[in-house]
Design goal:
eight-stranded parallel sheet; about 25% helix; about 25% strand; single chain; alpha+beta; seven-stranded mixed sheet
Length: about 700
């Protein structure tokens, strides 16, 4: 693995297949056909639609894949020429996947933020062609002398290359002489043909013909937090809220909410997401459980933004002021937490926008303004923005708001329902904001159809909510997780929230405490970014009848929770969440998205997957493999055989190796077929670290 330049400056990449950088070879003359001499097709990473760049994050191991072939039996080679944003140039050799589809692949860990450029280059591989033919013909006694001379001429050509090290040139001269030496029999010549050292010379510095250059392509690498992080959501108004003697509630503030920060950080979370913190409308304010009869003490939904106290650029007076918010952001940062703020582009009926810019909304024939609906849900307290009435004015206002919160220290925005706004708007906004500040991250709450969800990700959103909450069976999860890791990872980064204020699935409602452990374990290990909404650790699982929302929903009222008492009573999932986050930090394989491989079990409820990171691309230079075996049925005890393709992590089938359960500390000797028993009520999941092979 090459890790430094001639001046010993660290490279902005890690790779197991790095080659010495050589000038661009003389390419084939321009052709009057669309096809090229050694065709290159279906390059990846790529976005399947639109003129968008594929994406990665700093430290991500990116598979570079292309289809390439040529006529006949002659061999080809493929290499990747890569340019970092700072101008570092590198070459990486691709290997054939041998899958029958002429695909070639290499992996590179990208360590520098910005726009990378890359190009695939294919060529006739003169050594590989000779090696293949000579091994067959010399062994068969067919044209042996001719094959020996062709090899000797090839070695002469290679050792004439000025950039080839002197030791290689000397070894090639010796080999060429032996091939021409009548005293060396064909068996000796075959040893030269199959010599691994000589093959290594030509892999590092191939002798090329028919050089074909692919298109110049780009890849956007964003900061690590764009792709890696453990998120926690809480309502600041609930943290420190107090019920007074007269029965009314005094809201929590940013100062009281700051007292919860050490507890969140102690669980190992890295991002703290706050629902909207702005003034809440009084007109049509919702009461408890989404009722229409709010009382004088009901705080209303934070998503009904705006009142006489201000709009999207203001802080709710109950929480404090802008100075209090900035102090909260600093306190979070001191605990190792980054604050994410909700960006909900909608307005309460008494938002200043409604009076100042009525054209930004939809006026119905009866003169009223249309409120938001998501049938069967109705949001009488929210007016959606009509982006077609004054697009320039709306763009300017939203950009002003985002810049305002960036100035307060916010670098992450969770965007409410982006799929209900024009795709063009988001592409423009994210491009504009990131041009000014590349560190700003946007998370799309896009619970919608695949096409709009994937389009939003392609257009710029750094992260996306997904259908994870509704994928619960083994079969559903195998398909879903494989798709995230291998089909959409070039442009869509999932954030696997286990619950939200809007989502309490039947699986959690009826699965009991095992369901909460199962879902958290899968979310924390299957993707590098996942999230938890406060109350999950307290197993809050009672829904409002006929809905997938918690009863007495925190969107409409204050919540009083005894975090420490729950831990003391053993009624909290916090210790388990803490352990999951410790495991994530200790194992770089879990901080990758594209390295998930699904394996097999004989039970229709036992899900098996693994994440492997090769030593050459690992940040500490050591390989890391984690195997997850989970009982997806929260009501049962299951025992079965699991079947692993151990070649994924470099262990030959049948070879024993040691695994350690990172949750319990137990160790076992495993191979490719293993017995497991998972009791959903006590131990529903194994998170196994492959310690060593033997």
């Amino acid at each position: 693995m090459v890790t430094s330049t001639r001046s010993e400056r660290p490279r902005p990449w890690r790779s197991a297949a790095a080659l010495p950088v050589r000038p661009v070879p003389a390419r084939q003359p321009e052709s009057d056909t669309a096809s090229r001499r050694v065709p290159l097709a279906k390059p990846s990473p790529a976005v399947p639609w639109g003129d968008y760049r594929p994406k990665a994050f700093v430290g991500e191991v990116v598979p570079f894949v292309v289809t390439s072939f040529r006529e006949g039996h002659d061999r080809i080679g493929v290499q990747l020429r890569l340019f970092s944003p700072s101008g570092d140039e590198s070459l990486h050799r691709l290997d054939p996947l041998e899958d029958g589809f002429d695909r070639w692949r290499t992996e590179v860990a990208l360590l520098e933020q910005g726009v990378w450029r890359f190009r695939f280059e294919s060529f006739g591989d003169e050594f590989a062609t000779w090696e293949h033919a000579a091994a067959l013909k010399i062994a068969a006694g067919v044209d042996a002398a001719l094959m020996r001379e062709i090899g000797a001429l090839l070695f002469d050509r290679a050792r004439a290359e000025k950039d080839r090290p002197a030791a290689e040139r000397k070894a090639l001269a010796t080999a060429a002489a032996s091939l021409r030496d009548a005293g060396v029999d064909d068996a000796g010549a075959l040893e030269i043909v199959t010599d691994a050292t000589i093959a290594g010379f030509f892999r590092q510095r191939p002798v090329m013909s028919l050089v074909t250059l692919g298109d110049d392509l780009e890849l956007l690498v964003e900061r690590e937090r764009a792709g890696v992080g453990a998120w926690y959501e809480f309502f600041p108004r609930s943290e420190g809220a107090r019920r007074l003697k007269d029965g009314t509630v005094k809201s929590g503030t940013f100062r009281t909410a700051a007292k919860r920060l050490p507890g969140v950080a102690a669980m190992g979370f890295e991002v703290l997401y706050l629902p909207p913190i702005h003034p809440i409308g009084t007109l049509n304010r919702k009461g408890p459980n989404n009722t229409l009869d709010a009382g004088p003490g009901d705080p209303g939904s934070p998503w009904a933004i705006g009142s006489a106290a201000g709009g999207h650029d203001a802080v709710h007076p109950d929480l404090g002021g802008l100075a209090d918010f900035r102090a909260f952001v600093r306190a979070a940062r001191a605990e190792g937490l980054e604050v994410a703020l909700d960006l909900a582009l909608q307005a309460a009926p008494d938002h200043p926008w409604v009076a100042e810019h009525p054209e930004w909304f939809t006026t119905l024939p009866d003169g009223s303004i249309a409120y938001a609906e998501n049938p069967p849900k109705k949001y009488q307290d929210i007016y959606p923005v009509n982006f077609d009435n004054d697009p320039a004015g709306i763009r300017a206002e939203v950009l002003r708001i985002v810049r305002h919160w960036v100035a307060q220290g916010v670098r992450i925005f969770r965007v409410d329902n982006p799929h209900t706004k024009p795709l063009q708007f988001w592409e423009w906004l994210i491009r504009t904001v990131n041009a000014e500040n590349p560190d700003v991250v946007f998370l799309a709450e896009a619970f919608t159809r695949p096409a709009p969800l994937q389009s939003l990700a392609s257009a710029g959103f750094q992260q996306s909510y997904t259908y994870f909450t509704w994928r619960n069976t083994k079969a559903e999860l195998e398909e879903f997780l494989s798709q995230l890791a291998h089909e959409t990872a070039d442009f869509l980064r999932p954030n696997l929230f286990v619950n939200t204020p809007d989502i309490l699935t039947e699986y959690l409602q009826y699965g009991g405490r095992p369901a909460y452990r199962i879902r958290a374990a899968i979310a924390a290990t299957a993707a590098p970014t996942y999230g938890v909404y406060a109350g999950y650790e307290l197993y809050e699982n009672v829904a409002r009848p006929g809905s997938e929302e918690n009863i007495d929903n925190e969107k409409y009222e204050y919540k009083f929770r005894d975090w420490a008492g729950a831990v003391e009573r053993g009624d909290s999932l916090a210790p388990f969440l803490t352990r999951l986050n410790e495991i994530r930090r200790a194992h770089p394989a879990l901080r990758q998205l594209r390295n998930l491989s699904v394996h097999w079990s004989d039970d229709d409820a036992i899900l098996v997957y693994a994440k492997h990171l090769d030593a050459a691309v690992s940040p500490d230079g050591r390989s890391d493999t984690v195997i997850v075996v989970v009982n997806t049925d929260p009501h049962s005890v299951r025992q079965t055989m699991v079947h692993l393709d151990t070649r994924v992590w470099g262990v030959e089938p049948g070879t024993p190796y040691e695994v350690e359960d990172l949750v319990t500390g137990a160790t076992w000797t495993w191979s490719d077929h293993n017995f497991v028993m998972l009791d959903a009520f006590t131990e529903p999941v194994h998170i196994l670290h492959v310690k060593e092979s033997r």
